[in-house]
Amino acid sequence: MKILTAAQIAEGDRITIERQGITSEELMERAGTLIFKQIHNRLQGAQIPVKIFCGIGNNGGDGLVVARHLVQHGYTVEVYVVNYTDKRSDDFLNNYEKFKETTKDWPQLIKEEDGIPEIDQGDFVIDAIFGIGLNRKIKGWMCKLIERINKSGAFVLAIDMPSGLFPDKISQSDAIVHADYTLSFQNPKLSFFLPDTMDYVGEFQVLDIAIDRQYLAEVKSETFLVGKEQAKILYKPRKPNSHKGDYGNILVAGGSYGKMGSVLLTATAAMHTGTGLCTLYIPESGYTIIQTGLPEAMVITDKNAKILSDFPKNFKADTVCFGPGAGTAEETVHSLENFLKKQKTPMLIDADGLNILSQHKGLQDLLPENSILTPHPGELKRLLGKWKDDIEKLKLAKEFSKKYKVIIVIKGTHTMIINRDEIYINTSGNPGMATAGSGDVLSGVITSLLGQKYDPPVAAVLGVYLHGLCGDIIAADEGFEGLTAGMIAQNMGSAFKALFENQEIA
Ligand SMILES: NC(=O)C1=CN([C@@H]2O[C@H](COP(=O)(O)OP(=O)(O)OC[C@H]3O[C@@H](n4cnc5c(N)ncnc54)[C@H](O)[C@@H]3O)[C@@H](O)[C@H]2O)[C@@H](O)CC1
Ligand SMILES: Nc1ncnc2c1ncn2[C@@H]1O[C@H](COP(=O)(O)OP(=O)(O)O)[C@@H](O)[C@H]1O
Ligand SMILES: [K+]
């Protein structure tokens, strides 16, 4: 699914109105009615005090539609218009009149701090102050209103977006509604997925308001959401008439004394992702650990007992994963440099491999084209330098991706795959995966797909999705706390199976 900018969403509304031969008020009625139905489904007529705060634009208009339906269905509703200016939108005004006609009552106007009502913990607050039209930071008494909403402890439902949040930039103000739930129209917004802003959104659901399908199909976006539907079509079925040589001969290089488990996890994950042949290149002291832990894999040992210092001269792999547990010793820098010089096909660099690249920037020029880097935020900061906010982080990552012709997988709650100007936002995974070694497993999954000749951007996008999906499948049985990286590595097969099953896990 595409992530659209505020301007593209507004254009979608305009085209929909034109092509469907409806008025903008009818589109607003459609949007507001869908929100009402969701609320009505949840509340089932319960007499919870509902307080709706409406701005004076179309987000406020949506709020008034919801308010009218709630009143008509017998809910206890207080409607407030956050009247910071009298320049109200036409569709707001139409619904303002309609509300009065239907309910025989005007909403209450808030024009200053004194007019802000008390909000109790037991209230159900609907935030319809600002949506995608926010174009500057919120000032004055409206900050006090937002502060009161946030401090109230009431359940807060945001319409389209929490007020104060921009769809695709970061607010420098803390006057942002902290929603428990957001019901958004048609396409989710970028800020729903960024670490800086996602907590304001709470849980969210996207409602289909039937924006023109042709417009949605044709509109150009460089930011995409990856769910099961998108991941499924990337999968390449295995052929009956095939042998292990068809599924990649990969090399996993890394490990150091005390950190041999990392490469074991990586290689185990690769084997369970369908790799034909897997060889590990590890310090000599890891030999027994790996041969016992993963009998399917072959092992070549470095001459150094505790760290990598060299590279396997007479070994040719389809792709290489370098870095898990490797450390950053001078000898290991030399080892990575040799791999980079020798490997002509895209490879994957993770963990200490990335730290070495950050400390020895000259090595970045040696990265084979379309290699994949898989940093967590700490590793990314070392690689790119500091950023002001998540939007600048994405800009820096795109610049790095273009300069070095590589793909960057920024790991996190919503892992983002950066391929030049494109961003793919992953939707699978859960907090149970915030556990030691789950990143090592991801490296094994993506390297395996690279070895199976998936195009590097596809290997990254599909690998990240499957890794998260596997985590979700395990968490469904074991809970978040019970989930370990080893379980993900061992159970990757279940993620492939779930790609083609109907039940909704992620
Ligand atoms: N056609 C329709 O009727 C539809 C309406 N929708 C709703 O329309 C919303 C967008 O409506 P609008 O474009 O009217 O914008 P908003 O209702 O989000 O904002 C209203 C106006 O406030 C002003 N403003 C922006 N930032 C401000 C600030 N910090 N302080 C004071 N004033 C500020 C701007 O002039 C803006 O146009 C969406 O979020 C959604 O809720 C659509 O999503 C669905 C279709
Ligand atoms: N809250 C979360 N929700 C979804 N996925 C998560 C969450 N926390 C961590 N992950 C995933 O787990 C992995 C953690 O990787 P990383 O930080 O490198 O761990 P390690 O270094 O221990 O291997 C990443 O793929 C990340 O996206
Ligand atoms: K809102």
From TrEMBL:
> Per the entry, which co-factors are needed?
K(+); Mg(2+)
Q: Which residues bind AMP?
A: K411, G412, T413, H414, T415, G439
Which SUPFAM superfamilies is this protein grouped with?
Answer: Ribokinase-like, YjeF N-terminal domain-like
Keyword Nucleotide-binding annotated: yes
Indicate whether NADP appears among the record's keywords. Answer: yes
Q: Which InterPro entries match?
A: Carbohydrate_kinase_pred_CS, CARKD, Nnr, Ribokinase-like, YjeF_N_dom, YjeF_N_dom_sf
Q: Which residues form the YjeF N-terminal domain?
A: 9-217
Superkingdom is: Bacteria
Q: Where does K(+) bind?
A: N59, D127, S163
Q: Which UniProt keywords apply?
A: ATP-binding, Isomerase, Lyase, Metal-binding, Multifunctional enzyme, NAD, NADP, Nucleotide-binding, Potassium
* EC numbers for this chain: 4.2.1.136, 5.1.99.6
- Which protein family is it in? In the N-terminal section; belongs to the NnrE/AIBP family.
Outline the subunit composition. Answer: Homotetramer.
Purpose of the protein: Catalyzes the dehydration of the S-form of NAD(P)HX at the expense of ADP, which is converted to AMP. Together with NAD(P)HX epimerase, which catalyzes the epimerization of the S- and R-forms, the enzyme allows the repair of both epimers of NAD(P)HX, a damaged form of NAD(P)H that is a result of enzymatic or heat-dependent hydration. Bifunctional enzyme that catalyzes the epimerization of the S- and R-forms of NAD(P)HX and the dehydration of the S-form of NAD(P)HX at the expense of ADP, which is converted to AMP. This allows the repair of both epimers of NAD(P)HX, a damaged form of NAD(P)H that is a result of enzymatic or heat-dependent hydration.
This protein is called Bifunctional NAD(P)H-hydrate repair enzyme
Q: Which species is this record about?
A: Christiangramia antarctica
